[in-house]
Specification:
Largest sheet: 9 strands, mixed
Strand content: 15-25%
Distance between the termini: 50 Å
Shape: globular
CATH architecture of the largest domain: Alpha-Beta Horseshoe
Number of helices: 16
Helix content: 40-55%
Radius of gyration: 24 Å
CATH class of the largest domain: Alpha Beta
Length: about 475
């Protein structure tokens, strides 16, 4: 479908909004008058006259063709006015009101907080519902999550930073995954040299941190699947962190033990021996049929065994991830997943993701498309998870969105009081510097203006290994950035 923009450059937001309703459509940007015989099109036109701007929006597709217009007064956001007109027509054409309305960004919590600073909470909630067309349920979720995030963010200082450690290896690649990770079947020979160099990068990073007077707030070891490392390799990496960095200010250390088929007692004891209490064991679903469908090479029993082993080994802070909208999942099987996790296992936190159809994932490359029935099913799943978690004393503490999510929904972290993952809040709010080590890792330094300056490591393990001197050289960029902040 063509998007015609006359006297404006609103393509980015127009395309994002259109894709919410037409997730499988390809759009093309044009800055010319549409031909009269052109059928499928979106047209956004601005006509300025003194202090006012006339905003026109047209949507034509199939048998539907409609035009709407309004006047934007001086100081009013013309792009928002155009989106509002287009949204109304898209809802009328499809019969679907989107749960997040006009909002297409990753971080609705940041937007809510920014508006709340000037409007107050109640007026901001009204603005979300009346101006952005966000549903009442999602507005309340946003408000509750923002309050939880604000408490965590208030506890950090400008000298604080978080450390991210990347282990980009997985036993296999899940069908929905688009992250940079390598299956151990093909890259097992790289894991040991990668481990050695990762320890060297961590030591170098610790020297830089110490020289700049930074205070470690939280550590997150993710991937990939960090527990693809052996117990010895895991212990070496973790002990490098605890011996090289000043841990006296560190409030949280999380290790992803994401794939239950990689969890062993030896690895768990290696993690615990470094004083780490928080791990994430992620079943994604407790249906063996769904696990097989998405390419997870483990069973639900493997998850139960790993979870029980973690409790036995002394872990008192466990997160579990689930995904709503997975292929072959039903509402009943999703309810069973949530009921089993919450009522029988009672982990300290549960992160409810919604399936995102990433372009690089196997699902998308195999031709899987988004459809209305699956969107409605995902909405029912997410709504059920919210009820169960709320009723069981869990509270939402961080939230983010992704493009091409089934049902145009969200990912939400829920936790018992006092068990929130600090790192998740810091990384999503982007108000604390995150120094990252390992392949695919991106260091993000918060500047004096609040913007982020990024330092990229090489994406793939073989690049990281072959160009390690350059990795260390780039780390010196941290020194330069903090010199500029003084």
């Amino acid at each position: 479908m063509n998007i015609y923009l006359i006297n404006n450059d609103f393509y980015y937001e127009t395309e994002k909004l259109a894709k919410v309703f037409f997730p499988n459509e390809k759009f093309f940007e044009l800055h010319e008058e549409p031909a009269s015989e052109c059928s499928d099109r979106i047209v956004i036109r601005l006509d300025k006259n003194g202090d006012t701007t006339s905003v026109f929006a047209e949507l034509c597709t199939g048998d539907f063709c409609e035009t709407r217009s309004r006047t934007a007064e001086e100081g009013e956001d013309s792009e928002l006015a155009a989106a509002d007109l287009l949204y109304d027509m898209l809802v009328k054409m499809t019969g679907v009101s989107q749960p997040w309305g006009l909002l297409t960004g990753v971080r609705p919590i940041k937007l809510f907080r920014r508006l709340k600073e000037t409007m107050g909470e109640e007026e901001t909630k009204a603005h979300f519902e009346n101006v952005f067309h966000v549903s009442h349920e999602k507005t309340e979720l946003t408000s509750e999550t923002e309050r939880a995030e604000a408490q965590i963010l208030a506890s950090t200082t400008k000298e604080s930073f978080s450390l991210y450690i990347s282990v980009p290896f997985c036993p296999t690649r899940c069908s929905y995954c688009s992250f940079v990770s390598a299956s151990t079947a093909r890259t097992k020979h790289l894991i040991e040299p990668y481990t050695e160099l990762l320890c060297r990068e961590l030591e170098k990073t610790a020297e830089i941190v110490k020289a700049n007077g930074l205070k470690l707030d939280s550590v997150y070891m993710g991937g990939g699947t960090p527990t693809t490392l052996s117990a010895d390799q895991m212990a070496r990496v973790l002990s490098t962190v605890t011996c090289s960095f000043d841990m006296s200010t560190c409030r949280e250390f999380t290790v992803e033990a994401g794939r239950p088929d990689t969890v062993t007692e030896e690895k768990l004891r290696a993690i615990r021996s470094c004083g780490i209490d928080r791990i994430s064991i992620n079943p994604q679903t407790l249906s063996d049929i769904v696990l097989e469908e998405i390419g997870r090479k483990h069973t639900t029993q493997d998850f139960y065994n790993a979870y029980e082993l973690a409790r036995k080994t002394g872990f008192g802070n466990i997160n579990t991830d689930v995904i709503a909208g997975l292929p072959a999942d039903t509402l009943d099987s999703f309810k069973n997943t949530m009921d089993t996790l919450v009522y029988k296992l009672a982990p300290e936190s549960v992160t409810v993701h919604t399936l995102a159809m990433k372009r690089a994932s196997t699902l998308t490359q195999d031709g899987k498309m988004l459809d209305k029935e699956e969107a409605e099913l995902a909405m029912d799943m997410v709504a059920y998870s919210s009820r169960v978690l709320h009723d069981s004393g869990y509270k939402p503490y961080y939230l983010y969105r992704q493009s091409r999510m089934v049902g145009n929904l969200e990912n939400t972290g829920w936790s018992k009081p006092g068990k929130e993952c600090l790192y998740n809040v810091f990384i999503m709010d982007e108000s604390q510097s995150v120094i990252a080590c390992g392949a695919g890792a991106v260091t993000k330094i918060v500047t004096g203006s609040g913007k982020l300056e990024r330092i990229f490591n090489y994406k793939y393990p073989y690049e990281y290994i072959n160009s390690f001197d350059e990795v260390l050289k780039r780390k010196e960029g941290i020194v330069t950035l903090y010199d500029q902040l003084r």
